Amino acid sequence: MLNAKGNRDRRTRPGRPGRRRGIDLAASARSFFRAPLREGSRVRRALWGILFTVLLALLFASSALPQRLDVTVGEPAPRNIKAPLEFVDRPATERLQAEAMAEVPGVYEQDPTVGDEVLSQLAVIFSEIRQLRGDVSLAELEDLVDGESADGMERPDLHSAARRLENLVPGTVTAADIETILEAEDAEIDAAESQAESLLSFFFSQGVKSGGLDAFRDQIQEAFDRSELPDGLATFVGDMTSSLLVPNLLYSAEETENRRRAAAEAVDPEIILRGQVLVADGEVISSEDMVRLRDAGLLADDRPWRIYLSSGAYALVLIVLAGAYLGRLQPGILTSESRLVLVGLVFLVTLFVARLTMAVSPFLVPLAAGTILLAVLIDSNTAVFMGLLMSMSLFLISGADVKVVLVGLVGAIAAALAASRIEDRNDLMRAGFLASIAGMLVLATYAFYTGGATIRDSMLWRNLLWSGGNGLLSAVIAIGTLPFLETLFGIITPVKLVELASPTQPLLRRLLEEAPGTYHHSLMVANMAEAASEAVGGDPVLARVGAYFHDVGKARRPYFFVENQFGGENPHDKLSPNLSALIVISHVKDGVDMADEAGMPEPVTDFIATHHGTTLTGYFYSRAKELSDGDVPEDGFRYPGPRPQSKETAVVMLADAVEATVRSLSRPTPDRVRAVVRDLIHARLEDGQLDRCDLTLRDLDRVGEVFSQVLSGAFHRRLEYPESVIKAMKKEGEEGSDGENETGDRAQS
Q1: Which of 68, 400, 521, 679 could staple 300 via S-S, CB 3.0–4.6 A?
Q2: What is the DSSP letter of 422?
Q3: Angle at CA of residue 523, ends 519 and 527, nearest 5°
Q4: Residue whose C-alpha is closest to residue 115's, from 304, 308, 249
Q5: Nearest residue to 386 via CA among 399, 398, 369, 407
Q6: 192 CB burial (10 A radius; 0-12, 13-18, 19+)
């Protein structure tokens, strides 16, 4: 392409389009990689979640990883070694368990078949004895004994009976025994059998152990010795009965082990409390001391990876729970990066402070400070849930101390609920006081319910005092950090709104002194906006405060606005419509600048920037059209905007326009006020000024009704006095005037 001189324009020489494509590709690549990291994206939320998880895991690990010791058995302790957490004293507990197991006797189970078999055998023996007595007489036995030995008996029946008897009776049956049996009377044999059966039945019913068998046999023998039986028969039957006695209580190793194990499990473990001295300075370390030091995690040879892994897993669970809650019930927080960071920051800092205060007392942990801040900066529901998660975190930080967790949980929830409606900073102290009372009640209830304390327990009273200081410390922390968090994250709280609404606020004082008409107009707009915002579910306090400051920019050039002229000369009469419109429109920018210089919160500044939206300055635009022959563009006569984007800012825009218009009416009757309100709201709606706010048509109807009621009350019609009353009032005024003149003349004379 040639330029005016016929030369090729360098900007369009060949190759440049390709370079532009390269630039576009590079920009596209940057956009591709930056898009996932844009504010509010899922990737950034995930990164924040990872960061919070890592920091929380490190906090947990720091609580479980105290200073490590390099000591061995037999060496003196380098210092007083205290328990960093509460844990079970294994050596002492194992000693108690061993003692409990030793007290459990062995378990024996009785076998009823043993006694039955022995008694049956006894009956068979006496049956053989009777048969022997029937087959062999005493004379025959004497002849056989005189002729040859019993072993050489020629009578088969006698030989067979003696052998059967010897097989039945334990031990050896001698010829003397047989002779004793044959010599005895039938009644004596019956008595011996009865006594033997009774003794065996008695001992078997009592239970016979192998260890007590000899003693029982001695008792049997003594019983027969004391009997009226012949000595030989008593001795024979006693020996036979003793030999028949066998154990019927059998040792059960399994049941014995079960009972001893149950006894060991029933032993209350010995607990080493947090801060208790494990080994005193200079004391020789024993093997049991090494076990305690290892269980406390104080030995240098322990590998800490388990602690880091468990801390990370626990932190991940808490962060996932928090993310699930926010995503399900508070999606606005999850999508707002600043609010998400605020929640995470308050959560972590509160736990960090809890970690520090543990060194003083675990009951001084100010969890309530975090829930108070979240209740004021976010909402009470989020504060309660995060208080629950902080209490779960306190479980690890406190070394699994249930009392500490309960006190922290109840105090945190009580503070969150108490801080749900805050009007000034004194209410924060009230929330802390309620947290103290709740924590003290829980601690006292737990102590007395578990039976571990009495009314004279000094430790209980000391812990109660620490618990009482917990809530007060939480309130002090919340009051001190709240202004910094408000400024850092641009959040306006009810406490801040109440402070801004004070007449001593510098911008409001300047508005009152330099633009009193605008100040009183703003008060009226504030009343209307507060009532209307409450009617449509908005924040009435925010609407009131925003209305106070919406026209603050008029303080720079107050006399260019009719409400501040008070019947004087109107400077716009000497200016062109364009310049007048520029001056009037500039009060929006002036107000924003003044608010920024004063450090006003962004939500309040939004009221200043949006209270006219992009509306047209109709009066000056009409004058410009009258003075101009051609068409006049509207651009120079429209406010720069932006248009309202919330219920509160939209309500203030409507209240500002309605109040100014109704004030200009000569006869503001209720019907005329209602008509003006309806027309102005309809005009703003048709002009598109309400397109970006979330007001519905039904909301606009409610706003119109509220405006009409407030304005009808403010600009109510005065009573019309009868003509006779008016004449009488004039006459009294003239008489009073004459009296004043007469008094003045006398004074002059």
Answers
A1: 68
A2: -
A3: 165
A4: 249
A5: 369
A6: buried
One domain, residues 359 and 414: yes
| Residue 672 shares a structural domain with residue 603 | yes
Q: What pLDDT, on a 0 to 100 scale, did the predictor assign at position 368?
A: 92
Backbone angles phi, psi at 570, to 5 degrees: -90, 115
Are residues 315 and 229 located together in one domain of the fold? no
Host H or E run for residue 249: strand 249-251
Residue 166 lies in a domain: yes
Helix (H) or strand (E) holding 87: strand 87-88
The pLDDT of residue 221 is: 84
Residue 584, both tokens? 């009037």
Burial of 580 (0-12, 13-18, 19+ CB in 10 A): buried
Range of the domain at 244: 108-251
Structure tokens at 399: 């070394």
Which pLDDT value is given to residue 743? 32
Distances in Å between the Cα of 40 and the Cα atoms of 256, 306, 324, 378, 487 are: 66, 35, 17, 18, 20
User: β-strand 81-82 against 249-251: which pairing, if any?
Assistant: unpaired
Write the DSSP symbol of residue 636. Answer: G
Task: Note whether 382 and 365 are same-domain residues.
Answer: yes
CATH number for the domain spanning 468: value is 1.10.1760.20
Burial (CB count within 10 angstroms: exposed 0-12, middle 13-18, buried 19+), residue 586: middle
Quick one: tokens of 416?
């969150």
pLDDT for 302: 54
Asked whether the beta carbons of 139 and 228 are under 8 A apart, the reply is no
Residue 264, domain member (yes or no): no
Residue that has been written with the tokens 């929830």 in this structure:
413
The answer on 436 and 361 residing in a single domain is: yes
User: Does 239 lie in the same domain as 326?
Assistant: no
d(CA 244, CA 110): 17
Question: Is residue 330 included in any domain, yes or no?
Answer: yes
Element (H, E) at 326: helix 305-329
416 shares its domain with 371: yes
Q: What tens digit of pLDDT does each residue of 427-447 get?
A: 889 999 999 999 889 888 887
Low-confidence ranges of the chain (pLDDT < 50): 1-23, 25, 27-35, 37, 144-154, 718-721, 725-726, 729-730, 733-749
What is the CB neighbour count within 10 angstroms for residue 729? 11
Final residue of a structural domain among 189, 224, 251: 251
How many other β-carbons are positioned within 10 Å of the β-carbon of residue 213? 15
Q: Look at residue 4 and tell me if it is in a domain.
A: no
How many structural domains is the chain composed of?
Answer: 4
Backbone angles phi, psi at 226, to 5 degrees: -85, -5
Same-domain status, 617 and 725 = no
Is the CB of residue 466 less than 8 Å from the CB of residue 571? no
Element (H, E) at 271: strand 271-272
Q: Give the residue from 472, 491, 510 where a domain finishes.
A: 491
